[in-house]
Amino acid sequence: MSPTEKVRDFLVSNLVTFEDDLKLHDDDNFFELGFVDSSFAMQLVSFVEEEFNLTVTNEDLDLANFSTIKRIVQFIEKKKS
Amino acid sequence: MSDNNRQQTIVDEARCFADDYLRPRAGNFDREERLPKEIIDEMARRKYLLPSLPEAFGGLGLNPVFYGLFTEEIGKACCSTRGLITVQCSLIGESLLKWGSKEQKLNWLSAISAGEKIGAFAITEPDVGTDARGVQTIYQKKGNEYLINGRKKWISFAEIADFFVVIAAFGSEISAFMVERDRAGITILPQKGLLANRASHIAEIEFQNVRIPVKNIIARPGSGFSFVAGTALDHGRYSIAWAGVAIAQEALDCMARYALRRNQFGRKIAEFQLVQRMIGRAVANTHAARALCLKVGEMRIRNEKDSAAETSIAKYFTSKVAMEVSTDAVQVHGGNGCGNSYPVERLFRESKVLEIIEGTSQIQQQIIAKYGLRKYGKPLKSNKNC
Predict the structure, then answer these.
(1) Is B308 on the interface with A (CB under 8 A)?
(2) What domains, with CATH codes, occur in chain B?
(3) Best to test chain B binding among A39, A40, A51, A63 (most B CBs inside 10 Å)
(4) Measured on CA atoms in the order B287, B290, B294, B295, is the torsion positive or negative?
């Protein structure tokens, strides 16, 4: 799976929504859509660190880095480069 | 010695510490509504204030499973002492370790470990509990400083704390700050006459135009709720899950000992089947609660993606079990269970609080239900291999 597919797969499995077949576009801001609970951001950070073998530091902690699939993948690529 | 053996030795030593220093005095701590400084100093000497943190930061390097077992040993003997570890280690220590600057980690974690500085995690307010995103304490940036105004309530160890981790808002942006107690504009109002956690030095904190330097922000502006508080509360829930196991086991021990020594109608009350029903249920539920926590501990060691949701399940379940077992322990003690000559009345009061702190049972049920709907509600797929 590509990084985009891995991130999408995680999000679709973990976002708080009652939709049976969630269609999430690369630019959809799931924080603004209200699909998250209080522990989601922390779970997302753990997933990114574990799956892509990188460390998210306090300097990376801009919610914008984690708000859409596209931004997350860009963040991962930047950290890996 | 293997690392597992090293960690098990620490847990065994914690059991001896709890037996010698805590259990015989826990009733007095509760009645006097204070945790004596010599207890905190002794815990610092043993490095018990940050047990799950790496040794490089003054911790004992316990992994989540051994940290849980350690929490159970301390929590069985004294709920307020366990609360001190929950606040210093799970709430403050873990969130600083993850998101603090290098300077914050070096300065504050070593001071906590040495017992030189006690911290308090200030998120709850008079009008803001479960809806923590709605904090009304506000901050404003003024040059090289932040200005904080507002009021926090139900803050464990605030009465004796040297510093506070304060969650505050600037519009919709929520941030976390390190605020030293001796800054001008801070007033501490101890809360007395509480149901439980009476030796946890719970207090209100008032911030009036409190100025702190910009370096005191934890991580970045806007990361206070989603990341700093999120990390703290996840670790806090795990600690409280084990606190539930601790109270359930202690209440079960008290219940079983009492039932084997109390005679009525010429027989030990342990021989009566309705007493056995309560004891049987307590044994099964306490074992199940511990098994759940051990499973979650293993998941947390592996950083599994479902570990936060499974931690909520453990916290919800063990707090419920602690309440049930301690209620039955009071019942088995009869009239003797209703006074402070026996510890079960204290365990009964302490267990109620576990169903409220670090996310109420009702919020946990919602989190668990949504997790279950995601996990188990997927449409059936035809599988040609079956």
Answers:
(1) yes
(2) 3-118 (1.10.540.10), 120-221 (2.40.110.10), 225-376 (1.20.140.10)
(3) A39
(4) positive
CB-CB neighbors (< 8 A) of B222 in chain A: 62-63
> What residues of B are in contact with residue A19 (Cβ under 8 Å)?
none
pLDDT of B291 reads 98
Least confident of A23-37, B4-18, B164-178: A23-37
B298 is catalytic: no
Model's pTM, two decimal places?
0.94
Residue of A55, A18, A58, A51 lying closest to B372 (CA atoms): A18
User: Which residues 36-75 of B are in CB contact (within 8 Å) with A?
Assistant: none
Res. B43: pLDDT tops 90: yes
The count of other CB atoms within 10 Å of the CB of residue B306 is 16
pLDDT of residue A42: 87
Boundaries of domain holding A71: 3-17+24-80
Comparing C-alpha atoms, which of B217, B302, B225, B93 is closest to residue A49?
Answer: B302
- Interface test mutation site (partner A, options B108, B172, B226, max chain A beta carbons within 10 A): B226
Contact between A54 and A76 under an 8 Å Cβ cutoff? The reply is yes
CATH of the domain at A44: 1.10.1200.10
For chain A, what is the domain count?
1
Closest CA to B278 of B326, B328, B317, B319: B328
Q: Which of A55-59, B140-144, B157-161, B236-240 has the least mean pLDDT?
A: A55-59
Q: Report the alpha-carbon distance of residue B18 to residue B20 in Å, rounded.
A: 6
Shortest distance, CA B102 to any CA of chain A (angstroms): 10
CB pairs under 8 A between A and B: 65
- Point out the residue among A13, A20, A43 whose CB comes nearest to the CB of B308: A43
- Report ipTM for this prediction: 0.84
